[in-house]
């Protein structure tokens, strides 16, 4: 389909001459910096809405609508937003589980070559599958109950890695189980014998089998009991340090992100509304949506809690988003312009981008480094 159907303004448009201090999305061409592993440029994924006997296309769900960001090698980038904001669709496009409608996904391969994954065929993607892996939200659904741990973790070694020798595979599986904190004696057992936290360790071992460099973790602890969430997060961070992994960490709230991400991208109805280094985002949020998401973070200090503005109303449908700023029907700071003009993503401070007409005048409350109470046992903090 044609991109002209997008109602939004391209995030890569050049800055207007009248506003030289406000640069529009200078994250473009980030991949030119050799420390950048991936640059997603103007990514769009529209799902057609079909109706009737002949399945006529009557509209599109703009699940991801002109999204641009980059990830440096070895960092953890958080991708945050309420349910339905397009996080998983973005992640699935990056790993080519979805074909993007348009845009570029520029990836620096192990060999140092920059490739546009968005354009790749299945055959071209195959060698890259080893470098890019995904850890899903639900470890119960993502493991075949009829396969033993040996087969589950060994499958990518055999199918993608071509490791046909059984003993060699067994040795590598044993190594991987040890890496994720599982005993190699478990190798012949089936997933039902394990708890949720242990299953997520199996999923992680499987994702690590081919020595990936980049891992998309889509809400990897949301389905787990709170008591084991920290263990899995601690494991992910230990593995990152040991194996120099780069993470895109998807979450629907900011609690976990605050502790483990270097930078954060906030999405709302298929678009990026704010992106900043984690510290800046939590001390000085600039978008009312980000500030509202922060109100859901369980902060121990009641004085800080009292200053937060809770998020009200529901996320609009990406098939029929509101006019102007998509957040205007829920925004306590909306003015007339907000219902007619879509704000551009602009850089207010180095590395801090915001799409809000009032970003530079609003004094929004963040939670800073206030102690949160939701993930007992988390060892690492950024
Ligand atoms: N295959 C599909 N066909 C049509 N619409 C889809 C499809 N997959 C996702 N969508 C729609 O795209 C939008 C974004 O969905 P997505 O799963 O990416 O959101 P999300 O941010 O990951 O939400 P959650 O937090 O619930 O996982 C939603 O409106 C969803 O209904
Ligand atoms: S542009 Fe207007 S409606 Fe949108 S977040 Fe900013 S103040 Fe609120
Ligand atoms: Mg999702």
Give your account of this protein's structure:
- This protein is of the alpha/beta class.
- It has ten helices and twelve strands.
- A hairpin with a 4-residue loop joins strand 1 and strand 2.
- The protein binds adenosine-5'-triphosphate, iron/sulfur cluster and magnesium ion.
- Iron/sulfur cluster binds next to loops.
For the termini, the CA-CA separation is 42 Å
Instruction: Please tell me what the overall shape is.
Output: globular
Strand content: 15-25%
**H and E string:** EEEHEEHEHHHEHEHEEHHHEE
Segments where pLDDT lies below 50 for 5+ residues? 1-26
Major pleated sheet: 8 strands, mixed
Output the radius of gyration: 21 Å
Count the beta strands: 12
Helix proportion: 25-40%
Q: Please report the number of helical segments.
A: 10
What's the multimeric state? single chain
Strand pairing plus helix content: what structural class? Answer: alpha/beta
Strand order of the biggest β-sheet:
6-7-8-3-9-10-12-11
Features:
382 residues; alpha/beta; 4-stranded antiparallel β-sheet; 10 helices; 22% strand; binds adenosine-5'-triphosphate; binds iron/sulfur cluster; binds magnesium ion
Short characterization:
The chain is an alpha/beta fold and 382 residues long. 26% of the residues lie in helices and 22% in strands.
Write the layout of secondary structure elements.
Blueprint: E1 36-51, E2 56-72, E3 76-80, H1 87-94, E4 102-108, E5 114-116, H2 122-129, E6 132-135, H3 149-159, H4 166-179, H5 196-208, E7 214-218, H6 226-243, E8 246-251, H7 254-260, E9 263-268, E10 271-277, H8 278-283, H9 288-294, H10 302-307, E11 346-349, E12 352-354
Helix pairs in contact: 3-4, 3-5, 4-5, 5-6
The site of adenosine-5'-triphosphate has 13 residues, from β2 and α1.
């Amino acid at each position: 389909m044609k991109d002209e159907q997008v109602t939004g303004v391209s995030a890569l448009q050049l800055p207007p001459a009248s506003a030289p201090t406000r640069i529009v999305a200078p994250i473009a061409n980030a991949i030119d910096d050799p420390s950048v592993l991936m640059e997603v440029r103007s990514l769009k994924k529209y799902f057609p809405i079909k109706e009737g006997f002949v399945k006529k296309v009557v509209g599109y769900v703009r699940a991801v609508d002109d999204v641009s960001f980059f990830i440096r090698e070895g960092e953890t980038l958080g991708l945050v937003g309420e349910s339905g904001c397009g996080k998983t669709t973005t992640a699935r496009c990056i790993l080519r589980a979805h074909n993007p409608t348009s845009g570029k996904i520029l990836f620096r391969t192990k060999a140092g070559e920059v490739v546009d994954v968005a354009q790749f065929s299945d055959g071209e993607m195959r060698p890259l599958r080893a470098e890019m892996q995904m850890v899903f939200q639900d470890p119960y659904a993502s493991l075949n109950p009829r396969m033993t741990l040996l087969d589950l973790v060994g499958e990518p070694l055999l199918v993608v890695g071509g490791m046909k020798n059984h003993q060699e595979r067994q040795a590598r599986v044993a190594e991987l189980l040890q890496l994720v904190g599982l005993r190699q004696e478990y190798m012949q057992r089936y997933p039902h014998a394990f708890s949720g936290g242990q299953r997520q360790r199996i999923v992680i071992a499987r994702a690590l089998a081919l020595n990936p460099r980049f891992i998309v973790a889509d809400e990897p602890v949301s389905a787990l009991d709170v008591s084991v969430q920290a263990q899995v997060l601690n494991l992910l961070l230990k593995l990152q340090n040991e194996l120099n992994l780069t993470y895109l960490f998807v979450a629907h709230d900011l609690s976990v992100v605050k502790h483990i991400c270097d930078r954060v991208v906030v999405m709302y109805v298929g678009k990026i509304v704010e992106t900043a280094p984690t510290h800046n985002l939590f001390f000085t949020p600039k978008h009312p949506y980000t500030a509202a998401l922060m109100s859901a973070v369980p902060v121990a200090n009641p004085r800080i809690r009292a200053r937060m503005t809770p998020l009200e109303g529901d996320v609009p449908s990406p098939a029929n988003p509101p006019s102007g700023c998509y957040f205007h029907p829920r925004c306590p700071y909306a003015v007339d312009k907000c219902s007619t003009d879509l704000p551009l993503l602009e850089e207010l401070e180095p590395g801090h981008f915001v799409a809000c007409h009032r970003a530079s005048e609003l004094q929004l409350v963040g939670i800073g480094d206030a102690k949160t109470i939701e993930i007992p046992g988390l060892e690492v903090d950024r």
